[in-house]
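Please check the following.

. . .
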Amino acid sequence: MYKIAAMGDRDSIYGFASLGIHIFPEDRMESPAATLHNLATQDFAVIYITESLASRLKDDIEKYKDRPLPVIVPIPGVAGNTGLGMRAIARAVEKAVGSDILADA
């Protein structure tokens, strides 16, 4: 059975634990990049990652963009939304359907 993980600062991801999602707080990780790679090679189908952490692991996340699993989804943290998550979703949708259907008209 596939699992779901959340990576990032403790305040942003701690609530995911109540949903049964495995959490990986930054302050408990020796190397966030190594943690991401370990999760990707295990049975994690979805990895939520805060936008601030995702911006620091951009090259590591890029390695998984053409794989069907895991799906790595940037999410806003408690510090606010940087727009990274929406840009990633817009690129994925445009790639899937061939045009930018999410753009404001």
